[in-house]
Specification:
The protein is built from 10 helices and 18 strands. By secondary structure, the protein is an alpha/beta fold. It has 2 domains: about 180 residues, Medium-chain alcohol dehydrogenases, catalytic domain (Quinone Oxidoreductase, Chain A, domain 1), CATH 3.90.180; about 150 residues, Rossmann fold (3-Layer(aba) Sandwich). Strand 12, helix 5 and strand 13 form a beta-alpha-beta unit. The longest helix has 21 residues.
């Protein structure tokens, strides 16, 4: 099978539209005809080389499409199924992690395990084409992917909305669930891109008040109000730690979510310092994860102190149980209780993908959709 793809050949350079070939699905795999893929900040990390990956490669991991070929040994999917493709996993259902409800940590079908095998894609030079920023490679007309990374969904949701659930929603809203946000608690969300917006939606849905959006872009902060933010803080203009404490009676937020793309150890410390003494910091963003930064533990000092019991968690893809959660999020959307429509800034054909990437880089777009 052959199809077009937006290929990254050089880190940080424009993507190039090329024809690549796909092998037939191996046991446990499916070949998906892509309908839509949303552009995520994690894709930019992959394209820029901030997240390790082999080149040439294809990014894109918020993908929806139809199964067109099925490998041997499948247990859930068949040709013709309409699916959300993710970088997470439905798990095996039987290991200790799955039985404990933590399917994203499955020990038999790990969410990144397929990256260890040959990618099954080649360019016109015969070179292997890997996936970047996950295991999907959705900036292409076809995706070769493990069955375990897909969830069958109802065809009565449009693909340009459904693809948002594959990452932005499960990562943001899912992190609010995993962090344990409770009614009447307070939440602060640092970074109001689409993942942060969904952490806001999740916190608001779970009953937090106040829900405080923190960013440096006024138009993003204004947009956050559409999704449940009760207060906004522009950290360029005021001390964000003091502002959050002022809004929470002086104690700090019970839950602080780091969703900013510029995440760093300094931002980790800021989040801990604006968190209540017994609160939880949840780092969702991939930003700032370098070998050097991971050796630096000075920021952790804010977790210590007499009477302090702060927690710092960093769930992958929100720690979501996608086989249950993705259909549930779609039901919420269809019931008018999850706002996906306002997340979509624009739609582009594949040949205009570099425009879509540029719009996300500048913060102008929440999510741009690539339609195949």
């Amino acid at each position: 099978m052959k199809g077009r793809a937006a290929v990254c050949n050089t880190p940080g350079k424009p993507l190039e539209i090329e024809e690549i070939s796909f092998i037939d699905p191996r046991p446990g795999e499916v070949l998906i005809k892509v309908s839509t893929t949303a552009v995520c900040q994690s894709d930019i990390h992959g394209i820029d080389g901030d997240v390790p990956g082999k080149l040439p490669g294809v990014a894109g991991h918020e993908t929806v499409g139809y199964v067109v070929k099925a490998g041997a040994g499948l247990t859930r999917l068949k040709e013709g199924d309409y699916v959300c493709c993710t970088t997470s996993t439905v798990g095996c259902g039987f290991c200790d992690e799955c039985l404990a409800g933590r399917r994203s940590n499955c020990t038999n079908h790990g969410m990144m395990s397929s990256m260890m095998r040959e990618p099954g894609r080649k360019n016109s030079k015969g070179e292997p084409v890997s996936t970047l920023a996950g295991t999907v490679g959705g900036f292409a007309e076809y995706v070769l992917i493990d069955e375990s990374a897909n969830v069958k969904i109802s065809e009565d949701i449009a693909p340009e909305k459904a693809c948002l659930v594959s990452c932005a929603v499960i990562s943001g809203f899912g992190s609010a669930i995993t962090a344990g946000v409770k009614p009447f608690s307070s939440a602060a969300i640092i970074g109001t891109g689409s993942v942060g917006i969904n952490a806001i939606q999740g916190s608001y849905f779970l009953g937090a008040c106040p829900v405080i959006a923190v960013d440096i872009l006024d138009h993003r902060l204004e947009a956050a109000k559409q999704f449940g933010a009760t207060h906004t803080v522009n950290s360029k203009n005021v001390d964000p730690i003091q502002a959050v404490k002022d809004l929470t009676g002086g104690k700090g937020a019970d839950y602080v979510f780091i969703t900013a793309t510029t995440a760093s150890n300094a931002l980790n410390k800021l989040a801990l310092d604006m968190c209540s003494p017994n609160g939880t910091v949840c780092k969702v963003s991939l930003g700032g994860m370098t070998p050097e930064s991971m050796k630096d533990i000075e920021w952790m000092r804010s977790m210590q102190g007499f009477g302090v019991a702060r927690k710092f968690i960093s769930p992958m893809m929100g720690g979501s149980n996608i086989i249950v959660d993705i259909p549930n999020y779609i039901r919420l959307y269809q019931a008018g209780r999850l706002n996906l429509d306002s997340l979509v800034s624009a739609e582009y054909p594949l040949e205009d993908i570099n425009t879509a990437v540029a719009k996300l880089r500048t913060g102008e777009a929440l999510r741009s959709i690539i339609k195949m």
